[in-house]
Amino acid sequence: MAVVVALGAFLMTLFGGWVAQRVIDRRHLVLGLAGGLMLGVVGLDLLPEALSAAGDDLFGVPEALLLFVGGFLFAHAVERLLAVRRAAHGAADWGAEPGGPAKGKERVPQVGLTAAAAMVGHSLMDGIALGAAFQVGGGMGATVALAVITHDFADGFNTYTITSLYGNDRRKALGMLVADALAPLVGAASTLLFTLPEELLGGYLGFFGGVLLYLAAAEILPEAHHDHPALSTLLCTVAGVGFIWCVVGISGG
């Protein structure tokens, strides 16, 4: 089942890359909704499940919470080291200054490829988390699948944008986009070869929740409001959280 759902992530990633080439003014609404969905999955379903599965304490703190914080810090460290944020926002700065060739010269193609490769690695982790969630149960698998598929739209959008932003041609940008789309399939398929013990599974879900929260809070939501700090974007985010609340309630948590 996880591999079948991962096909949805594959298609959504490609769709995100397609939108990156065509849609400019309405993506803030899509990203606002995506951020709300991810926040709802982490806070209302993923973290409670992780705490339930990995309940042991380490120096007074549940291991799942420690790994949750660790996942958040890991995502932050990767972003800082690979300058993903700089790549994501550089286009707006450069475009706002038509006479600014000096900034354009700072764009080394290898930086764009490295940042895109990091996103491919993260998408592989998405697939593993998807397979692990279905090992917990269908309800958990469904909510994580929703988060992964939604997030992969933003992944596809950003992978194509970042690769091309740093001077890489369209062929390389499309190549990285396809690699990013295939990564969740590979990750989900790998979980068919093994079954994670419940405690290890809870720890992994906690770590993945931290990564997901960082992406929502530090990347997707700021990007959604970057050029369009509109009430409609905020309402899309709230709607995303509310939708996950309904999904969790209907599935019985």
What does this structure look like?
This protein has ten helices and two strands, in the order H-H-E-E-H-H-H-H-H-H-H-H. It has helices at 2-22, 27-53, 63-82, 84-95, 101-105, 109-136, 138-165, 170-190, 198-226, 231-251, and strands spanning 57-58, 61-62. It is globular, with a radius of gyration of 18 Å. The longest helix has 29 residues, at 198-226. It has one domain (2-251). The protein has a two-stranded antiparallel sheet. Helix 1 runs antiparallel to helix 6 (109-136) and helix 6 packs parallel to helix 8. A hairpin with a 2-residue loop joins strand 1 and strand 2.
What structural class do you assign from the helix and strand content? mainly alpha
Q: How many structural domains can be distinguished in the coordinates?
A: 1
CA radius of gyration: 18 Å
Strand content: under 5%
Low-confidence stretches: 91-106
What is the averaged pLDDT score?
Answer: 75
Order of helices and strands: HHEEHHHHHHHH
Number of helical regions: 10
Biggest pleated-sheet summary: 2 strands, antiparallel
Give, in spatial order, the strands making up the sheet with the most strands: 1-2
Distance between the termini: 20 Å
Indicate the percent of residues in helices. over 70%
Estimate the global geometry from the Cα principal axes.
globular
Query: How many runs of DSSP E, i.e. beta strands?
Result: 2
What are the key terms here?
253 residues; mainly alpha; two-stranded antiparallel sheet; 2 strands; 2% strand; globular
Could you write a compact summary of the structure shown?
The chain is mainly alpha-helical and 253 residues long. 84% of the residues lie in helices and 2% in strands.
